[in-house]
Design a protein that fits this description.
The protein is α/β, with parallel strands linked by helices and about 240 residues long. The protein has one domain: NAD(P)-binding Rossmann-like Domain (Rossmann fold), CATH 3.40.50. It is built from seven helices and seven strands; from the N terminus they run βαβαβαβαβαβααβ. The chain has a seven-stranded parallel β-sheet, with helices on both faces. Helix 4 links the parallel strand 4 and strand 5. The longest helix has 26 residues.
């Protein structure tokens, strides 16, 4: 029986690439998405071409009832569930002064509370396996223009370490901090080039840089509580 992985926010972009790469490695995929149904269906089609199973799980991670049931439903579909990738996130720009209550709540709900309770339920249901939290290299700085977003991501980094301690030795918990990998589709080439100058390698990365790091974490069974920065050295530049 194949191992299985649940990836949140996996309809497109980095989440989809992680799901496809794990499918190529022989994992059945529980693919979570919220609103990007057509992208989810296309990603599912690509996954199925690898000869593994893929089921779609649509829902809002900010919904407490849905959140509490996601691991249970995924586990009932794939009793071989052994990997949880917390990839889903919301990114919004606002300083502390400009942050509205609703924005703060939304960012914390999806970026922190959802991984917190998914890890909790994953540990309870599966007992052993791997959790990979997808973070952001911005956690290495304190950019107030993204105040609530960065706070939610910094908190997830601390949760990564805390969960690694609590759920060892059965479950390993690690994180990845991507840098400039997939800019928003509406950004100009000039914008991307400007951002690329903010890392030591002076270029943007590729989704393969993230997917290969996920595979490294899963294959290295003596690694837990670590956060790997895949950002071309951006975290070293102030």
């Amino acid at each position: 029986m194949n191992k299985a992985a649940l990836i949140t926010g996996a309809a497109k972009r980095i989440g989809a690439q992680i799901a496809i790469e794990l499918a190529r490695s022989g994992y059945d995929i529980a693919l979570h998405y919220n609103s990007s149904e057509q992208d989810a269906l296309q990603t599912q089609k690509t996954i199925l071409e690898n000869g593994v199973q893929c089921s779609l799980f649509k829902g809002d991670l900010g919904d407490k009832i849905y959140l509490s049931e996601l691991i249970k439903v995924a586990y009932s579909t794939f009793p071989n569930l052994s990997v949880l990738v917390n990839n889903a996130s919301i990114f919004k720009r606002a300083s502390i002064t400009d942050t509205k209550f609703e924005m703060f709540e939304e960012l914390i709900d999806v970026n922190l509370k959802a991984p917190y309770f998914l890890i909790k339920e994953f540990s309870s249901m599966c007992g052993s396996g791997n959790v990979v939290n997808i973070l952001d290299t911005k956690i290495t700085k304190s950019q107030n223009v993204y105040a609530a977003y960065i706070l939610s991501r910094k908190s997830l980094a601390y949760l990564t370490e805390m969960a690694a301690v609590e759920f060892a030795p059965g479950i390993r918990v690690n994180g990845i901090c991507p840098g400039l990998i997939l800019p928003a589709v509406n950004e100009s080439k000039e914008y991307v080039e400007r951002l690329s100058q903010k890392n030591l390698l002076k270029r943007k990365g590729s989704p393969e840089n993230i997917t290969s790091t996920v595979k490294f974490i899963l294959e290295n069974d003596f690694l837990t509580g670590e956060i790997i920065k895949v950002d071309g050295g951006e975290n070293l530049i102030w």
